[in-house]
Amino acid sequence: MSTTTNFDFNKQTVIVSGSKRPGQTGIYRNSFMPDNLVVKPCPEVSTVFDSFQYAVSRYAKKPCLGYRPFDKKTGKYGDYVWETYEKVLERFTNFGSGLVHINDTIVKNGKKDRYMVGVWSINKPEFQLIIQANAAYNLITVPLYDTLGHDAIEYCTNHAELQIVCMTANHITSMLKLAPKIPQLKVIISIDPLEDLTEYVKKWASEYNIKIYEFSEVENLGKENPRKYNPPTPSDLFVIPYTSGTTGDPKGVMVSHENMVAVLASYFVVTQSKPGDVIISYLPLAHVFGINVEICSIFLGCPIGYYRGDIFGIFDDMKVLKPTAFPSVPRVFNRVAAMLKGHTVESTGIIGVLSRKAIKDKTENFEKTGSVTHPIWDRILLNKFRDSFGGRVKYFSTGGAPLAKDVMDFLRIAFSVSFQEGYGQTENTGLGCTTMVGDAQPSHVGPPVCSSELKLVDVPEMGYTSEDKPFPRGEICVRGKGVMVGYFKDEKKTKETIDKEGWLHSGDIGYIDARGCVVVIDRKVSIFKLSQGEFIAPEKIEQVYLRNLLLAQLFVYGDPLKSYLVGIAVPNPELFVPWANELLGGTYEFEEHVKNKKVCDALLNNMNQVGIKYGLNGFERIKAIYVEPKAFTPEDGIITATFKTKRPAMTKFYRKIIDQLYADFDKSSQTVRAKL
């Protein structure tokens, strides 16, 4: 419901007068609201609880949350079943009353509010009901990543001192195994019916003085013991998501109601969504991006349909749901683009010829007119893409990492959608910048959102300064009501991250382009030196290489005693196998290709062609790779639940392989030198 009509895309930020200081830029604000930072979407809304009350007053009989019931007899999922806003209100009121009753009678911690309730679950309507119930009774939601390993679950449960945890039934056994190490846990609430397991798990839990309830039991307790709402204040904590840190233990980020409402206000200014638009929920609700999408959708009157919990079934879910908006992350968009290109523009024969012509014509039309539709090509060919997403999708949005220009351009044209890209981190409630509605230029993240202001601070050790030409460069710092309260139980780290003036130091490097848009180019914390003294930013290098659609994942490593880089590459099977088959002139399995030296050498060469194309210096290019057939997973402890690389853990995990890569390359280099 964007309100930014007639926005000047050539002047997207303004500099606050007199704000320039030595060693940093002036303070940038969104030119749509340069005088004041927005803090609320409307006068009636100061908390998340207020936002639902506002929405239910307008959309009471409209669908709010939907899911697909599973028929055990047929083994199939049915059509979406919807609960209205007023039904959701009734259910979370009952559940919240039940929670408070359990705390008073079973947990007995002496607290009337502001205690924490954990949630360990995939996205389900009940997850959102728990979030809303906690907001209504001034309790704090602590989401636990569904893919976190047991060590991280144990750490977060103890660190947050969780006495009540809601979880899907498949996690109860794991939690009970951890019970001796989490003695404060008193209550487990099963989001799913326990059915035949009820007696068994309750008996096991009783050995640790843990009581188990089913979700429906808690709702019934709330009906029988109703409690008045205990509305929070804006400064009260709303949620504590744990960042699955790339180094050390996860950090709990304290997000207040004021923080979330400020983001809601910014979202309200720039979003294209309007009442009745349909969202599919699969972005983890344990992450602030997923929470933002749902809180904002509910406020705007946009029904949320939950996927079945299996990512491989999401396209079937979308065909039934027919969403109009698809928020996602670059790794998903990269995969979608790779699959579609492999079957269209990069295929042989008539399909390839027609697809390339269609994309070319639509791109030229888009550049001339700004329209993403085409009267001929959409009808005879490209509408099939939209059909795979249900046929009604109008908006794509992305965040969490940069999305390559060629991927965004292809998807925008292929699906006939508008595309918005955001930038943020958990510490600023997931939203610091976003592209403005109607801005078709890619490769930037727009101006700061209207609830935040931004500046760049010099990083001289990396050669980035506010005096750089043609554009100022430096560490991106953000200030506004969206900035977190701090890290839970970690005042030292909070002070390191948020300075005395309230500026959140992101650790990201960026510049402000000629139109006033923020471009993220580097990461401050991951840099290291090679033996010749060259600084390396591995995340930037990985993002460049991952523009190669043959790759699914990549880890770049540099030994400080060496002058070159090596890498661990995980191929994208959908495109890697046919490419390798063509290279070898035969038909082979994926596992055979990753062990074939000719294929591995050709893959490295292909990767470095992309590196050269996108401007990697010689010292930034990988000299040797190991082709890994198994994807990096959080279960191995080498990436986070949001798929960010844990560099120390990754290095340790692949230590022997890395050492062998260096030994083999050094040996081959010596052989070449000897021959010369």
TrEMBL record:
Short name of one Pfam family: AMP-binding
Q: Which PROSITE patterns is this protein grouped with?
A: AMP_BINDING
The answer, when asked if ATP-binding is one of the entry's keywords, is yes
Question: What does the entry list under GO cellular component?
Answer: endoplasmic reticulum; membrane
* One annotated GO molecular function: long-chain fatty acid-CoA ligase activity
| KW ATP-binding (keyword) present | yes
Report keywords, A-Z.
ATP-binding, Nucleotide-binding
Its protein name is Acetyl-CoA synthetase-like protein
